[in-house]
Design brief:
By secondary structure, this protein is an all-alpha fold. The protein has a single domain, classed as MetI-like fold. The chain contains 24 helices and two strands. A hairpin with a 4-residue loop joins strand 1 and strand 2. Helix 1 packs parallel to helix 16 and helix 3 crosses helix 13.
Length: 530
């Protein structure tokens, strides 16, 4: 095992393995700290937990199937038909996927909530803003772009010669091309994205907490309630362990598929397939595409509208913005707004520096180490990790550092994937030549890897900032109000029925996120053209 692998495993053990083991072992302890299975058995015997397990599984399954169908179909339509404004679909989809969870919650409640804009016009749409249907609708919003991205990438990776040959001999027959080319090429992408979507929905916290209500609480919500409200840490650990076992099975399937993948550079250009469609089919394709676009765009548009204009008085939210921009102490939330902003950007900066550094170590480690990291991250929910971090370091490290460790873990999947692709784009002869002339250790990183991976490092850094600024689950679970960031505060403001302040703060978060997303897309486009 090389030094990169040893360093990586050491870092991940400190951040992930040790805390999770310390947290999950509480599931096997009695109140007097004796080894027992009674805690898990008693937890499973609770009717509310069994119902929660059922609801968690059902909502994740339905959300995954709907998101897969809508996203995959959109990818096929866009790549096979000349739909106007295709670039807009990619921009909106990427923004929706990267949007912090509280932006999604705010947008859906503003549109479909009890006093939502669309639910007031069409009362039936109120189902999308509450309960099980609300959870599913918000999860579908989040994951349509993920399914779309996977399938679209698979389709533009189809060798051009195959498409041209089949199109020539099939005379452009759409069904024949779909059967012989499209389905075989997108099946792995559908399965991979489906497993990831299921995990995301299964471990979702902010959406079920804010939209689902008590009756539709998921396992993540019950981990929070038993630990933070009922003060029953052993029961919370038992729920986390049950969830961990389920995620472990799914992660094993993911790892087996990941090992068969060959990491390569993203395709440079897209090839349009010569499908011959009737005017009716083309019209239906346009209607379908723009319906999906509207579904993704409307929650993002309504937030700044309600952020600046009070929906009830139709006047500017002047007082809300004054309250948010006043840095003095607010007794209603127990902290000053100035401290909220300092916390948010301090955590983001530290996550950028430490998270990207650790991701770089993972990216250049052996493939087996990467497999282990992905397995670890997929099998651990945000609240399970947060519980473990508190259990391991709560009396040792300051709260801000524990939060930063949780944020780092949240950034690792995206950052590692980007950096690993960037690392594999470097010609092996350059790396071998650097080693021959004696480049080792820290100089090797700063004089060889960083210059050659500049674009992927900048992109990973920007994504780390987005993830940290928008992170909700771990921050809300670990912190008190003094250590909150923007995302948890939006939830608190909505709980206090300060709708104007909540929408204004969500608008501010959306502006920050969208700006960074624009920078990320610009760097990714320049990367693809290299």
């Amino acid at each position: 095992m090389n030094k990169w692998a040893i360093t990586t495993l050491l870092l991940i053990t400190i951040i992930i393995y040790l805390p999770v083991v310390n947290g999950l072992k509480d599931a096997f302890l009695s109140p007097d700290n004796r080894l027992t299975l009674n805690t898990i058995l008693n937890t499973l015997s609770k009717s509310n937990i069994r119902r929660s397990l059922w609801i968690t599984t059902v909502q994740a399954t339905i959300s995954t199937l709907i998101a897969l169908f809508l996203g995959s179909t959109l990818a096929v339509v866009l790549i096979s038909m000349n739909i106007p404004g295709e670039k807009l679909f990619h921009i909106v989809g990427f923004t929706a996927f990267m949007a912090p969870s509280m932006i999604v919650v705010t947008g859906f409640l503003d549109l479909y909530g009890e006093y939502g804009f669309l639910s007031n016009i069409i009362p039936g749409l109120g189902a999308l803003g509450k309960g099980l249907t609300g959870i599913i609708a918000a999860h579908v919003f989040y994951n349509i772009p993920l399914s779309f991205s996977f399938v679209y990438s698979a389709l533009i990776g189809v060798p051009r010669e195959i498409i041209q040959t089949i199109a020539l001999f099939s005379k452009g027959r759409t069904i024949y091309i779909i059967k012989k080319v499209i389905i075989p090429y997108i099946s792995p992408a559908i399965i991979s994205s489906g497993l990831i979507i299921f995990i995301y929905c299964f471990t979702s916290f902010a959406i079920p907490l804010s939209i689902g209500g008590i009756y539709y609480s998921t396992l993540e919500v019950y981990i929070y309630r038993y630990y933070k409200i009922s003060f029953q840490p052993n029961t919370a650990a038992a729920i986390a362990f049950i969830q961990y076992l389920i995620l472990q099975l799914i992660a094993l399937v993911m790892i087996s598929m990941y090992r068969r993948e060959k990491i390569s550079a993203a395709p440079i250009a897209m090839y349009k397939y010569p499908f011959k469609t009737s005017r009716k089919t083309y019209f239906l394709g346009v209607i379908y595409s723009y319906t999906i676009l509207a579904y993704l765009l409307l929650p993002l548009i309504i937030i700044p509208i309600y952020g600046f204009i009070n929906p009830y008085t139709h006047q500017l939210n002047t007082n809300a913005w004054i309250n948010l921009l006043t840095p003095t102490y607010d007794p209603g939330i127990g902290v000053s707004m100035g401290q909220i902003y300092i916390n948010t950007f301090y955590y983001a900066l530290m996550t950028l520096i430490l998270g990207v550094s650790i991701s770089l170590f993972i990216a250049v480690a052996s493939p087996r180490i990467v497999d282990v990291i992905y397995l670890s991250l997929l099998s651990i929910s945000p609240l399970t990790l947060s519980y473990g971090l508190l259990r391991s370091y709560g009396g040792i490290l300051p709260v801000p550092l524990i939060i930063i460790l949780a944020h780092i873990t949240a950034t690792l999947p995206l950052a590692t994937r980007l950096l690993r692709i960037g690392y594999y784009r470097i010609p092996r002869i350059i790396l071998d030549s650097a080693r021959v002339i004696g480049e080792r250790g820290i100089p090797y990183i700063f004089r060889v890897l960083i210059p050659l991976m500049k674009v992927s490092l900048i992109t990973a850094s920007l994504l780390a900032v987005i993830v940290s600024i928008g992170e909700f689950s771990a921050t809300y679970f670990i912190a008190t109000s003094s250590y909150y960031t923007i995302s948890p505060l939006i939830h608190v403001l909505r709980g206090l029925r300060k709708w104007g302040e909540a929408d204004a703060l969500a608008t501010l978060l959306l502006i920050i996120t969208a700006s960074i997303v624009g920078l990320v897309r610009g760097w990714i486009e320049s990367w693809r053209m290299q």
